[in-house]
Amino acid sequence: EAAVTQSPRNKVAVTGGKVTLSCNQTNNHNNMYWYRQDTGHGLRLIHYSYGAGSTEKGDIPDGYKASRPSQENFSLILELATPSQTSVYFCASGDRGRGTEVFFGKGTRLTVV
Amino acid sequence: AQSVTQPDARVTVSEGASLQLRCKYSYFGTPYLFWYVQYPRQGLQLLLKYYPGDPVVQGVNGFEAEFSKSNSSFHLRKASVHWSDWAVYFCAVSNYGNEKITFGAGTKLTIKP
User: Fold this and answer.
1) Could you tell me which residues come within 8 angstroms of residue B11 by beta carbon, excluding any fewer than 6 positions away?
2) Residue A62's domain is classified under what CATH number?
3) Residue A1 sits at the chain B interface (C-beta within 8 Å)
4) Which range of residues forms the domain containing residue A96?
């Protein structure tokens, strides 16, 4: 069964601090994604990756970095967290190709105080 | 740039009534379209997906969607809703290689007893 695991599930961070959100997938998918979900905006794409070593900017990359050290792992890094980055973050993975299904993790609730 | 608009932020229907959730997309070329559902405190799960071909697509749990190129729409329908359908529904469009998937803002469905 396709599995995407995010850690931590909940995080409280201080303004100006560094936050790393981790994602692991056991699907052997090439593509991985980071989204944030906010009321009224739905899911917005932050960064995505085609495979190990690649990261690409999504629609709202400012203030975020990403790292894909292996096929299985994709991290989202907030170097200097701000309260506006308080949100629920979702990681997902999917195969490369025409309209294939994307599998989501259960989300990480991040609060920046 | 690709985009998805879900014009109804909230929809309320009575249990047993029919349902239509609206989705309009913008995409240059042949779109690959999806409906995902999000139950409380969970990630998104695929309901159905459209590949170029038959405009009516069947999904899980009695859901179906109809693609219209002339209207740039991909509306979701169900003949008779159940209380377990209470969730948030997202429409999405992906590019050819599935590297970039764009979601709408979502429609929150509430079921009246």
Assistant:
1) B19, B21, B107, B108, B109, B110
2) 2.60.40.10
3) no
4) 4-112
